[in-house]
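Summary for the steering committee. The consortium agreed at its last meeting that each partner would contribute one worked example illustrating the joint modelling workflow. Our contribution is presented below. We chose a case with several input lines so that the handling of multiple components could be demonstrated. No manual editing was applied between input and output; the record is shown as generated.
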Amino acid sequence: MPSSFGTTLRVTVFGQSHSPAIGCVVEGLPAGFSVDQDALARFMARRSPGANRWSTPRREADAVQILSGLNPQGATCGAPLSCVIANTNTRSSDYDELRRVPRPGHADFTAQAKWHGAQDVAGGGHFSGRLTAPLCAAGGIALQVLEARGVLIGAHLAEVAGIADEPFDDGSGSGQQLARQLASLRDGRDFPVLDDDAGARMRAAIDAAREDKDSVGGIVECAATGMPAGVGSPLFDGIESAIARIAFGVPAVKGIEFGAGFSAARMRGSQNNDPYGMDEGGNPLPLKNDAGGNLGGITTGAPVIFRLAFKPTPSIGREQDSVDLEQGTPAKLSVRGRHDPCIAPRAVPVAEAVMALALLDSWLSFPPDSL
Amino acid sequence: MPSSFGTTLRVTVFGQSHSPAIGCVVEGLPAGFSVDQDALARFMARRSPGANRWSTPRREADAVQILSGLNPQGATCGAPLSCVIANTNTRSSDYDELRRVPRPGHADFTAQAKWHGAQDVAGGGHFSGRLTAPLCAAGGIALQVLEARGVLIGAHLAEVAGIADEPFDDGSGSGQQLARQLASLRDGRDFPVLDDDAGARMRAAIDAAREDKDSVGGIVECAATGMPAGVGSPLFDGIESAIARIAFGVPAVKGIEFGAGFSAARMRGSQNNDPYGMDEGGNPLPLKNDAGGNLGGITTGAPVIFRLAFKPTPSIGREQDSVDLEQGTPAKLSVRGRHDPCIAPRAVPVAEAVMALALLDSWLSFPPDSL
Amino acid sequence: MPSSFGTTLRVTVFGQSHSPAIGCVVEGLPAGFSVDQDALARFMARRSPGANRWSTPRREADAVQILSGLNPQGATCGAPLSCVIANTNTRSSDYDELRRVPRPGHADFTAQAKWHGAQDVAGGGHFSGRLTAPLCAAGGIALQVLEARGVLIGAHLAEVAGIADEPFDDGSGSGQQLARQLASLRDGRDFPVLDDDAGARMRAAIDAAREDKDSVGGIVECAATGMPAGVGSPLFDGIESAIARIAFGVPAVKGIEFGAGFSAARMRGSQNNDPYGMDEGGNPLPLKNDAGGNLGGITTGAPVIFRLAFKPTPSIGREQDSVDLEQGTPAKLSVRGRHDPCIAPRAVPVAEAVMALALLDSWLSFPPDSL
Amino acid sequence: MPSSFGTTLRVTVFGQSHSPAIGCVVEGLPAGFSVDQDALARFMARRSPGANRWSTPRREADAVQILSGLNPQGATCGAPLSCVIANTNTRSSDYDELRRVPRPGHADFTAQAKWHGAQDVAGGGHFSGRLTAPLCAAGGIALQVLEARGVLIGAHLAEVAGIADEPFDDGSGSGQQLARQLASLRDGRDFPVLDDDAGARMRAAIDAAREDKDSVGGIVECAATGMPAGVGSPLFDGIESAIARIAFGVPAVKGIEFGAGFSAARMRGSQNNDPYGMDEGGNPLPLKNDAGGNLGGITTGAPVIFRLAFKPTPSIGREQDSVDLEQGTPAKLSVRGRHDPCIAPRAVPVAEAVMALALLDSWLSFPPDSL
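What follows is the complete predicted structure of the assembly.
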């Protein structure tokens, strides 16, 4: 089921970049939860294009219309929640030749290898980054459910074009430092970094890439605080498997790491192991959090933290080498249209959606046994 | 289904470190394939403990007994293939106090948070690295099926304790350089590196860690050549999602990246995009392979390449801080027993098994449309 | 995933009787298939209410709007096909007290036991027979795909109020008798029976029940010709399991049988076994078809035939005994609104949709091995 | 996943009639449950062959060996429970020609159409009724878990060769009559009927069929008391869908009905609807139980009751018409070996296993919302 994921909380995403609409179905939401549709719209706005100069000029309201799953009082009713987002700004003619001359770094070539011409190439079709909008709609609701359970999720640009933001604290101990960081990201700032100076340099790098008809990549770091210990499952439905499977469904993601991640591979065990201690209330907890909040696929009670590597936007104005698949000859290609020279800023809420959907599904599917 | 994965090729892994046996069930293997049980035994031997001084002294034959799924001629018969591996060398008394004083870096604490004492703590129970044996049994068969289809898979220690091996060539162009590398890894060498000098330094670092009652981590790089273009699926069942979901079910994995991976995040689009050209036979192909062999979750025809970050073995002889969960007090703990001071060497065939199972399932579940 | 089914062809149904819309998502359709939307509309019309006097006066166009999954040429493009049907005629006030005083034979009571008030009771919510409309939308497309592969599916009212229609021939031998029966059901008749006289008596029985403010049940028989031998799977994903799982998701179904079904339980083996012979082309085939076209969950090449028992419409105008769940007292209830006094006639295309979805998914998921 | 079923409680069955062993893996059992292995052995004995003259002379202990999933105290530990049953009495030579001349009523022909010779034909391979042994092992454990939660499950031969037993009371009202019936089936009787006289006539009919080298069919009725209201799910994962999907995985099942079943199709709504009333404790309940304990796929609190139609054993000594698939000619066939002339008696515990696995999975996957 390529466009679905989840066990109890099951999300199915549908739509193409230029189809009449895109949307999702979410099965398994707890019944009786009042969805805050205004908060959902604000969350969607963080991902939507056209909000600022770092983003594509394609403007769409990305208004989420909920078609089912709520009772007349606006609360979830036990039936699948479905929603659609209209595609209002479609210019299919921009894309007519993509089936013939595939864009490097896009799925044009692989879609042709798979479907031999039946695929919808306009705007990238089902592969479009636009499909992260319904993922955010589902994730935005999951975020609300988790928040009601005491879980806060936030993400920032850990890196753009090699320029690093202040990293997240690992959330161990009192967790106040990470809490402050997450709070500051919610203060209405229009660029999701902790260090404003780093943010200014990132924006300059993005502008420079645009001027060069080029693009840059970035790394998004995401944290969730407040998860109880004991959520998840050993082996292939663990917290990391659940997050990673969804994350690699987000276009342009090329890597993921949890906690110390790749740098753990360079540590000794005595450094990497998180020792246990007691908190002020006498409860056991890890004294640091290189594990990224889970061991053996099950939450430790410390914040769950991951980083996603986003490659630079493959759509660039520069001339590139490609092939003419019909004529079997080399061909030059310059991607027309306007695209984000860096997708990482708009991917920040997407990372939050991924975290929320994976954690809520894990909680519903694999909770701690009741005592 | 925490201990299962796959769509058409579905693998269910069972067993605990010290249960009577461990094993797996593999549904969906193509019928009529003759399993080479000797080759399977040789593959298992690469993962098995005790083969050399870098490994735990716990010796077990890891003989795979196939209980079902073959016809009298030894070929797959369409029914689920099941196999078991006896646990012959169990010393449960080593582990009696783990439920009370959890080992840092292990799942003892999270298992207690989830199951409140019902879990089998001996040897790590269902979380044990020993569960990679049945994963390798399933993967070893998948490797054979793929090899018959022209797909070769190999892995090496890209890094141990910060010491780097020669990296895999990206396999673009004629692919001869990567083919040579994969062939050299199959020449019977007992330490899976391309650069023998780097290998010697890695072994010295592992020995040094053992002497310090400590451990080191590593990075395993895995490549698959010969996959046709067009295998896989957009979004959440793409090649990367399939591999990542299984990979994070392997104990100690903390990160995964494909192709250029995290370094892609520091590139410009003009660098990272893989341009297309024509091979000698007039077929289009990517001229380089920073994508790691897939775009939009679908194979490009270039080799699929990933890297896995393994944390250092959490079981170390050094005294560590933990807690006594019964008494609610801090406690000191030194892990007794003998353990690999670096698990990465034995994880090399595990990475190959992960690759094989994910690719074969993708091929069976999401093949290119027939023309 | 309560509102989804299927392995490769996966259908997710959403909506409540009075939500803004109902609809479905269909993953896994073969790419490149041109959907005939006019034929789909005609199929939907057979299920839609208000077409005649045997049906509820609630009239809705049941126009299927396809939101995604087609390329600009109107063919399937490999991405999930999604469609919605607007709910235009909703009168929620009819249903306000159902949460308090549950209707016998409906899911009002069980929904309350499950969701404690959060459920959407209007019109039966997610339990409404109206949810068979998106099921028919998905099934109508599957019927077209199967027809292009040489499979014809038809159903009729085998029984209404105890009055029997001419039964389907079992399709063995030349299959001409069953082919004639299926053809006659496609001749535009407005009441799906083979024996017009029996049909007239059925309609009289339905009218009589309506006059009595009561309802009657019926049995729908469905056949599929043209399936090749070797489709399906042993055990729990066999043809019968696949059909039955979907069929019991259709409201009011209380039984299913295949081939000789319950009467097979009263036969001897020498009667019930279908002997094999050779057809004119020298191919083996069963000489009769008490097996209903499958053995061991795998098609024999003979027609697949099942019968579904539909209980009488639970909504009746007669006064019934119920309880007031708020006050904890007995209560009388008469169901207001207009309802079909027999749902079996409108269930005939629903049975065809169930057959089509189960067979197409089985064919895509569990085809005969390629030679 | 043809040999698996279930959502939270997931069962995978493996083995062929003459493979070294058969077995199953059960994921998702609640942790901390002490399995009573003696009770499990007694349950298995009810299904095992050779216990009496109504059964095949093939005698096997059917001893269940649990390989994993228990902690040292014998309680479930959160990891998958796996078990194997050795195949000790195999005579493959009996079956050598089945690939060439398929037995009517068996899956020999369809297996050949699917796998073209790779299938394991010995003893029916993966299609053998012997695969109900691991299903009973899984179900026997589920029965114990349910019994600890207050649910009792029992089944009887409602009909053999057209001879009817006393039917189950529908369990409404006090439920004492059904409770008495279930208790009497547990009193050690060797033939599972309520009416001993009917049982004697059934046995005579079975003996007569054996003497005629023929076989007879039967109907098994199964009831579960004590399920709370609110378990299950609308649409395709409802109670009836869950039971039916598993039931049709049992060899020889050709029909299933719930509550009034097919006879409901001949009732009026005023007859079939179950009115609600209050029990002595002031709780609402259905006053009769034609619904078979569920409405809209969700339990009502009344007993869940179904009936399964078993066709007569297809293996009969009489000469039958078949074909020689190699030579493409008609052929005569007489099934050698000894087989049950009626499988229904041994199917009684299998029906209980089906009920238990479906209900426990529904309860774990789709419980009533917590208040």
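Chain D has a mean pLDDT of 93. The first helix of chain D runs from residue 37 to 47.
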